[in-house]
Each structure stands twice: as C-alpha cells, then as structure tokens.
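Hi everyone,

Forwarding the result from last night's run.
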Amino acid sequence: MKKLRLLPLACLVIVPAMLQGRVLDVSSEQEYEAILSQRQPTLVKFAANWCGVCNRVKAAFEELSDDSELQGVKFVQVDIDKAPELRKKNGIVGVPSFIFIQGNAHLKESVGVKSLKTFKDDLRNDIRTVFNLSDE
C-alpha cells in the first residue's frame, strides 16, 4: 500500500524535469564553444537567479524550445553568476539578454523584456525573422 502512495509523489517529482524542453544549461566556455561550433541557429539567454524578470520568462523560453516549428533552433541558457567569463566575453551588461547566433555570427542581441504579456509571441517572431524560418 505504501508503494502505491509513493508512486504518484515520484511522478510529481519526475514530470517537471521532463517539461523543461530542450534548453541546454551552459556553465563553461568549453560547453559554449562546443555548442556554437555546430553552426546551428542558436538562441542564448543570459540570466541570473536573482533576476525577477529572468524568472518570469523562464517558462515561456522553455515552452518555445519545445515548439515543433522551432525544432531547428538550439536553445541555450547561461547563468551569468555561474559563468562570468561568458558574460564578459559576450559583453552582457543587463539580464535577461538574448543573443541570436549562427555559426560565428551574432545576428541580433536583445536586452530586457518589453512586455511580459507578449514576451513569448515577440520572441517567437524574432526567432522566425532572424533565422529566416517559415511561419507556416
């Protein structure tokens, strides 16, 4: 009987981890360079745990990483406190910052969030435009 009670609790613990989408957490320059060397369209979010806005957009960023339309885009997040060398290397002065990269080219950078209400749609549109994705 106790095993039956533990099973639902175990599911509650496992399911949130699976819902995090395809976002890769990067904490070293070596990991970062390895991802960029794949030359795949990549959206990098620089954030910090202490940043309220960063925390409010986290779920939307993860949801976009699971969007089938955006499957060709790699989603990466960097905690600036855990990887200060990456913050410096990329010239990050505010969080959240989003850098659109393909190959070695920084195609676009965006700092902050204009509207929490429209963040997800705005970011999806930016991804489509910057990486020339079809909106079909």
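The first helix runs from residue 2 to 18.

Cheers,
N.
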